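thought: user wants a sequence for this fold. calling inverse folding tool.
action: design(structure=
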C-alpha cells in the first residue's frame, strides 16, 4: 500500500512537470514564431498559376511576430530585371523594417528562370508580351495566397514598380482596384486601357530627362525591347487618375531644388494623387541604387521609397478599412509560413538587401 502511494506521488510529480514544460513551450510559441526567417531575411516562394510556376521573394519586417495584420507592399522589378534587383535598387526591406510592413517582390517571366524577366503591361515588354502572360491574374492570385496564409491588412495593399514594372503598377491599379489601395509607379507610363471600378490612390515619380520612358510621352529614345511602342505622357496618367478619383483639379505645387511636387486633394473615398517631377532626372529610382554601372544616376534629393510609403500608408482603401479580418490576431506557425511560400519548394534565402535611403 505504501509503495502504491509512493508511485502515485511520483506519477503526480511527473505529470506536473510535463504540464509545465508543455505550457512553457506553448507560451513561447504563441509569443513568437520559431522560424528565424520571419525576422532575419527573405523567403523565396512559388505558386503555380495557369500551368506556369511563378516565383517571388517575401520579406517580413524585423521583430514581426504575426500578432496583427500588416500592410503589404508589392514591388515590381523593371524589364530585364528580377526580384533581387528590385530589392537592391529600392531598399524596401530596410523601409519595411523601420515602418512595419510586409514586402513581396514577384518575378516576371522570361526564357530564363531568373534573368531578363518582363511584365505584360499592355504594350510592353519582351517575353511576357509575346506570350500574352496573364500578369494581372498572377498578382491577383499572389495577393489571395498571401492573404490566406499570412495576416495581411486588406485595406493597405499597395503596388510599386519601375519602368516596365511601373507600367504594370498602373495596369494593376486599373484592373485590380478592388484589392489595391494605391499604386506608386516610377518611370512608368499608363499605356493600358483603364476603367477602374473603384478609386485608387496614386503617387508617381518621373525624371524629365528619361530617355527610356519619355516624360512627355512618345517613342522611347533608348530601349532594349524589340517591340514598337508609343508611351503616353506623365501628364496623361496624372490627369486620368485625378479625374477617376474625383480630385480637385488644381494641385498644391511646391518646388525644392530640382524636385517639383504636385499634390491633388479632396479626392473620393480618402484617396489622393501626387506627382514628383525630377528636373533633369533620368531612368532611375530616386534615392535608390543603380541596377548596373551604365544605368542613369538616381537623384539624391529625395527617396522615392520613403516618400511613397509615407503617402500610401495615409491612404488605405476605405471599403475594406474596418473589415474584421484586419483586426483579428493570428499565429504564424512554421507550417503556415511554409504553405505561403510553396510547400514543396521552400528556399530560405539568407541574402541581405538592406539599402540606406535618404529621408526628406
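)
observation: tool returned 360 residues.
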Amino acid at each position: 500500500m505504501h509503495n502504491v502511494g509512493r508511485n502515485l506521488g511520483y506519477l503526480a510529480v511527473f505529470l506536473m512537470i510535463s504540464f509545465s514544460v508543455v505550457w512553457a513551450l506553448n507560451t513561447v510559441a504563441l509569443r513568437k514564431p520559431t522560424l528565424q526567417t520571419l525576422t532575419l531575411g527573405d523567403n523565396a516562394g512559388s505558386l503555380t498559376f495557369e500551368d506556369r510556376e511563378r516565383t517571388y521573394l517575401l520579406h517580413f519586417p524585423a521583430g514581426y511576430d504575426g500578432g496583427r495584420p500588416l500592410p503589404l507592399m508589392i514591388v515590381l522589378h523593371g524589364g530585364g530585371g528580377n526580384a533581387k534587383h528590385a530589392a537592391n535598387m529600392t531598399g524596401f526591406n530596410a523601409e519595411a523594417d523601420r515602418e512595419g510592413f510586409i514586402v513581396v517582390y514577384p518575378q516576371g517571366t522570361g526564357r530564363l528562370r531568373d534573368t531578363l524577366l518582363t511584365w505584360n503591361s499592355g504594350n510592353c515588354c519582351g517575353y511576357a508580351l509575346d506570350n500574352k502572360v496573364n500578369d494581372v491574374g498572377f498578382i491577383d492570385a499572389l495577393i489571395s495566397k498571401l492573404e490566406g496564409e499570412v495576416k495581411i491588412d486588406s485595406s493597405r495593399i499597395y503596388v510599386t514598380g519601375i519602368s516596365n514594372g511601373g507600367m504594370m503598377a498602373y495596369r494593376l491599379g486599373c484592373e485590380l482596384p478592388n484589392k489595391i489601395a494605391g499604386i506608386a509607379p516610377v518611370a512608368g507610363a499608363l499605356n493600358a486601357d483603364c476603367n477602374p471600378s473603384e478609386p485608387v490612390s496614386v503617387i508617381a515619380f518621373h525624371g524629365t530627362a528619361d530617355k527610356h520612358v519619355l516624360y512627355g510621352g512618345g517613342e522611347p529614345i533608348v530601349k532594349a525591347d524589340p517591340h514598337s511602342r508609343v508611351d503616353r505622357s506623365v501628364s496623361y496618367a496624372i490627369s486620368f487618375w485625378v479625374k477617376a478619383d474625383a480630385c480637385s483639379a488644381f494641385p498644391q505645387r511646391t518646388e525644392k531644388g530640382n524636385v517639383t511636387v504636385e499634390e491633388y486633394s479632396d479626392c473620393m473615398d480618402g484617396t489622393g494623387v501626387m506627382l514628383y517631377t525630377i528636373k533633369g532626372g533620368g531612368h532611375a529610382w530616386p534615392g535608390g541604387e543603380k541596377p548596373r554601372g551604365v544605368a542613369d544616376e538616381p537623384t539624391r534629393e529625395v527617396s522615392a521609397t520613403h516618400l511613397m510609403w509615407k503617402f500610401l500608408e495615409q491612404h488605405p482603401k476605405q471599403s475594406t478599412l474596418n473589415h474584421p479580418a484586419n483586426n483579428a490576431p493570428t499565429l504564424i506557425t512554421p507550417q503556415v509560413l511554409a504553405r505561403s511560400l510553396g510547400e514543396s519548394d521552400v528556399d530560405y534565402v539568407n541574402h541581405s538587401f538592406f539599402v540606406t535611403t535618404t529621408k526628406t
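thought: summarizing for user.
answer: Here is the designed sequence. Residues 1-31 form one domain.
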